[in-house]
Design brief:
The protein is 49% helix and 14% strand. The chain is an alpha/beta fold and 296 residues long. A five-stranded parallel beta sheet has the order 4-5-8-3-9, sandwiched between helices. A three-stranded mixed beta sheet has the order 2-1-10. Strand 4, helix 3 and strand 5 form a beta-alpha-beta unit. Helix 4 packs across helix 5 and helix 7 crosses helix 9. The radius of gyration is 23 Å and the shape is globular.
């Protein structure tokens, strides 16, 4: 989706953005990685490869133009005629997804993106530990948590220039083992760190191979879905009256559950549930229209 996409919940200025963090909950060796490959990496990788070829072509053109510009700098009149708008702008390669969740790299890409960036992590255990360390002192986990809300940010790094981010659209998906989640649950979640994640439990089942089972290839429809999805323009969505009625009823239930669970880690989960519904609503709305290829 386009950066800046949002959904207004009510008339008070409460908006949510489609930044979503998913964690696929399953034991080790339960084939989490093939799911991530099929649903994300393969299709986005193909799109990214095509855009990489275009980027390399534009980069070669830039190198020719910047060399010409540098030669003409000694001849002001010719420089003004050939480059009235100043020096040529170096092209930037914009990732669709990343498998390397380093904060510096993510911030750099988000600052260059008109659309979203998704981080795909086979194992989220390391990130969860980082988030857990955040409550005893600021670190990269703080920024990852703030990215979840998708509001304007200005990141100040000790050794780098400040990084302003306008409505960054960043999502994350990866696998986590039940034991890791159990440890997190036992330690509590004072800052609502892992409460921001939508945990999806993968059913425990044997993966059986059948010689005569035929081929099941979902790459083409998934690729088509991403291609259509990337064409959806910037939108500021609003709930219909019927949707608001259902949303408010759910929100009120979650708030009562949050208050009742105030001294329990689930209190933060209930507190984040209303916003998560809005995030999912935007995403599912976009998927529906991407499948039908109609501008939502």
């Amino acid at each position: 989706l386009a950066r800046g996409t949002k959904l207004s919940i009510d008339g008070s200025g409460w908006v949510v953005r489609p930044n979503i963090y998913f964690a696929l909950l399953a034991n080790s060796s339960q084939k989490k990685s093939p799911i991530l490959n099929s649903m994300i990496k393969t299709a986005l990788g193909e799109i990214q490869s095509k855009e990489r070829a275009d980027y390399e072509t534009r980069l070669k053109e830039y190198e020719i133009e910047i060399e010409k510009y540098n030669v003409l700098k000694k001849k002001p009149e010719q420089l003004a005629d050939n480059f009235p708008d100043g020096p040529p702008e170096k092209p930037v390669f914009k990732l669709k997804f990343t498998t390397n969740l380093t904060l510096e790299g993510v911030l750099k890409q988000l600052g260059q993106q008109e659309r979203g960036l998704i981080a795909v992590c086979d194992e989220l255990a390391g990130l969860f530990k980082s988030l857990n360390q955040y409550k005893s002192g600021g670190n990269d986990g703080e920024v990852i948590i703030e990215l979840y809300d998708g509001g304007d940010m200005s990141i100040v790094r000790a050794k780098n220039d400040p990084v302003p981010l306008e409505s960054p659209l960043f999502s994350m998906v990866g696998g986590v083992q039940p034991g890791v989640l159990k440890e997190l649950f036992a330690k509590g979640d004072d800052n609502g760190n892992w409460a921001r994640f939508c945990f999806v439990k993968q059913p425990l089942a044997a993966t059986e191979l059948n010689v005569d089972g035929g081929d099941i290839d979902i790459s083409e429809p998934i690729l088509s879905l991403y291609q259509n999805f990337s064409q959806i323009p910037l939108r500021h969505y609003k709930l219909t009256y019927q949707a608001r009625t259902l949303y408010f009823e759910a929100h009120n239930r979650f708030e009562k559950a949050r208050v009742a669970s105030a001294d329990h880690p689930m209190g933060n989960v209930w507190g984040k549930a209303s916003g998560l519904i809005g995030k999912l609503a935007i995403t599912l709305h976009g998927i529906k229209h991407a499948c039908q290829w109609a501008i939502p």
